[in-house]
Backbone:
């Protein structure tokens, strides 16, 4: 008895030239080799390791089959199998995904690029060959700073890997955050209508942390005697 054999992710969306690794869970243990195949080799290709690459627009199905040797007959038999859907698309638009649009000074949050639908994630286009490049900017750098995800390690990635960034709230104010996504080879038809770039912009508001102006106190607690009063004034 073994848990159900499942291929992951359950649904795959890629642009032309992008790749993703299909993995598995469950099935007989220790697991034998998985034989991968795809319903339409014109749409996408799949390697023996489960690496799928988008080739042309359309839909297909990747099948993974687990085989084992029958102890009585010595023949290979199918023990379990599973299927996942594959869709190869063109990007018609991009959008910036940010968990919040209001943040405190001195804090940071991750932002990343998505396609127009929730299934068009960075996994859909981040590994494309020829690749895409991602160019970020803010309208007020004194309000919001933007850095690569590996900047703290003093490691700068090329623009084609910057589909995710970190933004830092510096000073109180409102600013625009913009990303421009460009194709390295328009002939690859990775964008709709042979477009060479797509862009999106959102507004982010940075506000000051709440703190006491009067009385000036660094402590998180104020001790008071019974029947006493104190007037508190904050920065808001």
Residues:
């Amino acid at each position: 008895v073994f848990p159900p054999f499942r291929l992951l992710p359950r649904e795959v969306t890629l642009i032309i030239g992008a790749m993703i690794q299909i993995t598995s869970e469950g099935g007989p243990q220790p697991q034998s080799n998985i034989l991968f195949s795809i319903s339409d080799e014109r749409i996408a290709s799949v390697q023996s390791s489960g690496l799928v690459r988008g080739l042309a627009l359309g839909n297909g199905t990747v099948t993974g089959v687990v085989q084992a040797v029958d102890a009585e007959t010595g023949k290979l038999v199918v023990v379990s199998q599973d299927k996942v859907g594959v869709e190869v698309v063109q990007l018609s638009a991009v959008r910036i995904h940010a968990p919040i649009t209001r943040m405190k000074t001195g804090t940071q949050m991750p932002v990343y690029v998505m396609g127009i639908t929730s299934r068009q994630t960075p996994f859909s286009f981040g590994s494309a060959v020829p690749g895409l490049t991602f160019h970020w900017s803010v309208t007020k750098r004194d309000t919001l700073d933007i850095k690569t995800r590996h900047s703290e390690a003093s490691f700068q990635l090329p623009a084609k890997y910057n589909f995710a960034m970190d933004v830092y709230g510096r000073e109180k104010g409102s600013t625009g955050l913009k990303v421009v996504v460009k194709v390295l080879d328009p002939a690859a038809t990775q964008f709709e209508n042979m477009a060479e770039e797509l862009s999106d912009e959102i507004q982010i508001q940075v506000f000051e942390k709440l703190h006491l102006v009067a009385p000036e106190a660094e402590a998180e607690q104020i001790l008071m005697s019974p029947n006493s009063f104190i007037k508190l004034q904050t920065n808001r």
In short: The chain has two domains: 6-89, 94-207. The first helix runs from residue 122 to 125. The chain has one helix and 19 strands. The CA atoms of residues 17 and 128 lie 5 Å apart.
